[in-house]
């Protein structure tokens, strides 16, 4: 009997000891320092790399007004002031974040007087910590409607084209984000010998040079491209100034929506047939967060 | 035999006494900060402040995840994490210190007591001394600590670019409110 009681007493004393540890250990006991699963944000400065959708989503209640502008060809030389004299092309667009994972947008391009709209959904977001998921997965579906009267069409449905994209992207560290973009484009009408469906593999990424400036690349390899058409490549810089993101870049793509830059990029980088362009993104918080 | 039984009872009583609400903690403390600048007022809230108070010694410790701060505008939140506090590099803000007038606070009697706190605040990888006044409120065996203090961004090597000088103040007012439960 005696040893048992002695053990019990010892246990009680030890229990007391355990209770009087210093506060640092107690913080650990509370699990304060334990790593938690956290979502990865700010993979890109804006919802587009340059031409393409990026894996970055608009947050809920954010309206993004985007002005996309391309000057004329740099190869125009001093006479055309390296393309700044024009002919310029522009797309004005409004994107809205319905939730943190669903956004949609509409736009109108001067080129072919084209209207476009898209829906963007992120089923999986990159995270870190326990139970992390290594990449963000985003699905994009969009359509374009060419309202011009120049191109000959037989039915009004001939004005439509559709595109579907999967964006798989990973923010490797604070500076580097890469994404691939398998893409399919369907045009309702094509010239003889062209394919209605175009398949493309896109690649894009950014390297952050400072807190507010990043270097971006955006490229598509179109697998069954028609002769005379080339692959679009854009390179440029993102400059973020608070409410605005300026995307200054060079590109060989004249068109500014998915149909136009995938199916109608005729200019080549190696001839200097590139254009200077800029995208301006201005965000407005329409719906404030409840707190 | 009886002696031993008595001893056990005494040991238990002592044991209970020893852990009788010396330490209080919370994992859901509130911390808010605000910046008032000519062109913009910024406010952010975080309800996941972890806090610990040892009433015997007056030692206090607080820790907060920077990513837990919520702003009314999503873009502000992103810029806070990306450009200013750099929460990937410096995920937490920490405070370690003590109540210097801890003797004047009677944790067994309900009431609100003024408290002076001295300690070290670590933010953005920089540790600096912090001294502030607050209150300790004792109510129904629970303790609530409140404090408001100022933090200068320049003290913690957080730079304000000239383009946002009119929108962001160097002087940030921080408000802390922790309702702490006894640690069992």
UniProtKB/TrEMBL annotation, chain A:
InterPro entries documented for this protein: DUF5777 (IPR045916)
UniProt superkingdom: Bacteria
Keyword Signal in record: yes
Pfam families in alphabetical order: DUF5777
Keywords from the named record: Signal
Span of domain DUF5777: 44-284
Signal peptide: 1-20
Name listed for the protein in its UniProt record: DUF5777 domain-containing protein
Automatic annotation (TrEMBL), chain B:
Protein name: YceI-like domain-containing protein
Coiled-coil blocks: none
Lipid/polyisoprenoid-binding YceI-like domain location: 24-177
Entry's transmembrane regions: none
Keywords assigned: Signal
Protein origin, superkingdom: Bacteria
Signal peptide: 1-20
UniProt keyword Signal present: yes
């Amino acid at each position: 009997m005696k040893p048992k009681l002695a053990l019990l007493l010892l246990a009680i004393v030890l229990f007391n000891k355990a209770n009087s540890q210093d506060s640092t250990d107690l913080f650990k006991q509370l699990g304060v320092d334990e790593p938690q699963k956290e979502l990865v944000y700010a993979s890109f400065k804006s919802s587009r790399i340059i031409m393409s959708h990026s894996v970055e989503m608009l947050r809920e209640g954010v309206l993004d007004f985007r002005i996309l502008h391309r000057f004329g060809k740099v190869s125009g030389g001093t006479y055309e002031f390296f393309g700044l004299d024009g002919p310029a092309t522009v797309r004005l667009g409004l994107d809205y974040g319905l939730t943190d994972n669903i956004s949609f947008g509409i736009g109108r391009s001067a080129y072919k007087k084209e209207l476009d709209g898209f829906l963007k959904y992120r089923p999986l977001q990159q995270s870190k910590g326990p139970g992390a998921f290594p990449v963000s997965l985003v699905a994009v579906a969009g359509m374009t409607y060419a309202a011009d009267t120049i191109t000959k069409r037989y039915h009004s449905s001939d004005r439509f084209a559709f595109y579907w994209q999967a964006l798989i992207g990973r923010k490797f560290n604070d500076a580097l984000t890469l994404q691939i973009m398998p893409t399919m484009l369907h045009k309702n009408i094509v010239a003889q010998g062209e394919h209605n469906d175009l398949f493309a593999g896109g690649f894009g990424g950014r390297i952050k040079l400072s807190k507010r400036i990043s270097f971006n690349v955006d490229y598509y390899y179109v697998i069954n491209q028609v002769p005379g058409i080339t692959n679009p490549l854009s390179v440029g810089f993102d400059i973020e100034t608070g409410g605005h993101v300026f995307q200054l870049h060079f590109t060989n793509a004249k068109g500014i929506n998915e149909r136009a830059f995938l199916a109608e990029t005729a200019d080549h980088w190696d001839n200097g047939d590139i254009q200077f362009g800029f995208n301006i993104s201005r965000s407005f918080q329409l719906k404030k967060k409840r707190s | 035999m009886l002696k031993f039984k008595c001893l056990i009872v005494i040991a238990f009583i002592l044991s209970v006494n020893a852990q009788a609400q010396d330490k209080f903690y919370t994992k859901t403390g509130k911390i808010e900060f605000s910046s008032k600048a000519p062109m913009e007022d910024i406010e952010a809230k975080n309800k996941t402040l972890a806090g610990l108070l040892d009433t015997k010694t007056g030692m206090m410790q607080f820790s907060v995840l920077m990513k837990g701060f919520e702003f009314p505008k999503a873009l502000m939140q992103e810029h806070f994490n990306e450009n200013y506090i750099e929460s990937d590099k410096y995920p937490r803000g920490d405070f370690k210190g003590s109540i210097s007038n801890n003797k004047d606070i009677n944790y067994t009697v309900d009431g609100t007591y003024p408290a002076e706190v001295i300690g070290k605040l670590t933010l953005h990888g920089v540790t600096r001394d912090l001294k502030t006044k607050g209150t300790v409120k004792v109510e129904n065996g629970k303790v609530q600590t409140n404090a408001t203090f100022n933090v200068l961004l320049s003290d913690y090597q957080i730079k304000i670019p000239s383009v946002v000088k009119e929108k962001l103040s160097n002087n940030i007012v921080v408000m802390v409110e922790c309702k702490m439960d006894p640690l069992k």
